[in-house]
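User: Assemble these into one structure.

Assistant: Restating your components, then the assembled model:
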Amino acid sequence: MGKVLESRGLWFAYDDDYVLEDISVSVDRSDFVAIVGPNGGGKTTFVKLITGLLQPTMGTLTVLGGPPAKAGSRIGYVPQFSTMDASFPITVLEVVLQGLFHKSMIGPVWKRDAVEQGLHSLEQLGIADLAGRHFGRLSGGQKQRALLARALVSSPELLILDEPTSSVDIAVEEDIYELLKELNSVMTILLVTHDITFVSSYVNKVMCLNRRSACHATEEIALEREGIAPYGHKVTEIRHQCGL
Amino acid sequence: MDSVIPLYLFTFTAALLSGIAAGIAGTFVVTRRLAVMSGGLAHAVLGGIGLAVFLSFEPLWGALAAALLFVLILVLGKNRLGEREDTVIAALWSLGMALGVLFISLTPGYTVDLLSYLFGNILLVTVKNLFALAILDLFLILGVVLFKKHILYVSFDEEYSAMRGLPVNLMSLLFLGVIAVTIVLLTRIVGLVLVIALLALPASAANLFSRHLTSMMILASLFAVLFNSAGLGISYLLNLPSGAMIIIVSAAGYGAARAVRALMKRKREAPEG
């Protein structure tokens, strides 16, 4: 199976401050990878390198067989929506159509088949009735689905999600992970998350990232202790053996 | 002002042309959160005006050069030198005004006209100014029609647009350039101290009622034309400063728009029956 993502001795620094050191990982087709690590551990920086928004300081990184900047149209990306301006005048359908947009598309009107593709993607996420609504006035779960629809509308080969369930309730979270599990049969998924407990039953690899990285298959992670959280949901304490 | 054109016609043309530019460029200012930058730029152009007056050439060219220099230094300072944006804006804002005051103080007998640049004066608007505004309006309308989607997506989510291969940095520079030129051309009407309100208030009012970027631009232009016309009309009837009246009417208009929006929301949320 071909490698979707491969890094060898990847280093990245903001000015002289190294955020990533000697990262060597490889992701195969149909992998579902969780990237976990503390705040400031380099997770978002790593995602920005994969999406071509940042350039490595040292080392090599190939995405879908080439340099990351060339892979943009084959990647679906779901950022954290909490940074988006809620008053920005844009409808849900327009947000989704951004996933099909290319710089050569001059003119104010979308082609009919693009609109149909956008509506289909919204339908897939169960929010087709919200197509004409103001994006900023949606609930957290609806926004997350709309951004997921934008990422999926171009049928990407690699789907990257940055904390997709940080602002949604547990029922929506479960729905989203179930959908991702389905999608994983046709695309590779990279998921940045703090919530390794919840995703451990969905992913097949976990990448621990705290400046340096270590990758495990899910079954290598030791489930140390189970307990009951204050909100009534089962919580598992996990200790990684990688020493990061 | 050209004496063969009746004052009311001239005034309305100025209100119309400046309103269109203010509505479109103001939408960039509001959605891209550039109000502070625009305020700083508007004040800094006094340096260019002062130098132009001192060297006896057209103040408009001095203002334009200063505005574009402001944009260039801001972008270089932020992107290349890693300076904080607000610090660069504050420094250029004050430096531009200081240079303007210095050059004008070295040019005896020019203080009366200086006030018109600070606070605007419709009576000093020339036919040439109106032509320049008309060309700017055409450029803005054509730009929006052709590049509506580029503008929409770079403004909404710059990072995603960059990932999709859009020239985000070039477009951001173009946005700043358009705002700079618009500010320079509007200063003749409302003055450089007040121009930011003409950009921000109609667009902010329009944002309350818009789900699409283009409908926000159209509504913002309509509001700006309305506020300009009403402000100029009141200033003419009561013999009050035109620039100040336009801004006071714009602020009142924004307040009214907020109130209407709140009423609409209350009506929608009220239980039926």
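Chain A touches chain B at residues 15, 51-53, 69, 72-73, 75, 77, 79, 84-85, 87-91, 94-95, 98, 101-103, 105-108, 110, 132-134, 150 (CB under 8 Å).
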